[in-house]
């Protein structure tokens, strides 16, 4: 019993001496790690390169989007202008068609007048068949009127078709040229308006 009491007393004394002893000094490795950690924290707080890089990246992305919007707006304006040009060409074609219709009506009216005059000449020739001199004059006049009538009929056949074909050919060439130009512009703008690749922050 006395032996157990003496061991307990020694153990209590040993624990007391350990609690009262000063703390052990840190090892050199622990000091080095703690110094590196503080150095990184200090450099991170004093060096604004990370914040500047984010600001520059954000500004570059904003500028890219702004340029893209400007190009899209320019493309929309060009499409509106081309639509106006097509509408103008269509109106010009309608106006030219109306002019051709007017000329056709005038030619038809002239042809009707020539036919009426020819009929009168024929009737007059029949009444004056006994007068050879007058008959010869009337024959010449009749032949001239017939020749003019044939020319007018031929002109009426070709006038509308030729003018219409020429007008449509010119209009088609202009539309093809403008369509090619628009296709090149759209292809160029479509290739340059893709958003830049950005790194995830």
UniProtKB/TrEMBL annotation:
Residues 42-53 have a biased composition (Polar residues). GO terms for molecular function: enzyme inhibitor activity; phosphatase regulator activity; protein kinase binding. InterPro entries: PP1_Regulatory_Subunit, PRKG1_interact. Residues 1-65 are annotated as: Disordered. Residues 85-190 form the cGMP-dependent protein kinase interacting domain. It holds the Pfam family PRKG1_interact. The keyword Repeat applies. Residues 83-188 form a coiled coil. Keywords: ANK repeat, Coiled coil, Repeat. This is cGMP-dependent protein kinase interacting domain-containing protein. The lineage of its organism: Eukaryota, Metazoa, Chordata, Craniata, Vertebrata.
């Amino acid at each position: 019993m006395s032996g157990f009491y003496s061991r307990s007393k020694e153990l209590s004394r040993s624990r007391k001496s350990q609690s009262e002893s000063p703390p052990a000094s840190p090892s050199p490795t622990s000091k080095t790690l703690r110094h590196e950690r503080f150095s990184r924290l200090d450099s991170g707080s004093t060096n604004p390169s990370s914040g500047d890089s984010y600001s520059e990246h954000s500004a570059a992305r904003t500028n890219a989007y702004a340029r893209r919007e400007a190009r899209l707006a320019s493309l929309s304006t060009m499409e509106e202008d081309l639509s106006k040009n097509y509408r103008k060409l269509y109106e010009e074609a309608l106006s030219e068609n109306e002019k051709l219709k007017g000329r056709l009506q005038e030619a038809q009216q002239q042809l009707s007048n020539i036919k009426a005059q020819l009929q009168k000449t024929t009737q007059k020739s029949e009444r004056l068949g006994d007068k050879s001199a007058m008959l010869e004059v009337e024959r010449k006049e009749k032949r001239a009127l017939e020749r003019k009538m044939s020319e007018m009929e031929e002109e009426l056949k070709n006038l509308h078709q030729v003018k219409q074909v020429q007008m449509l050919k010119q209009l088609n060439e202009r539309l093809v040229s403008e369509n090619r130009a628009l296709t090149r512009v759209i292809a160029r703008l479509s290739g340059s308006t893709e958003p830049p690749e950005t790194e995830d922050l």
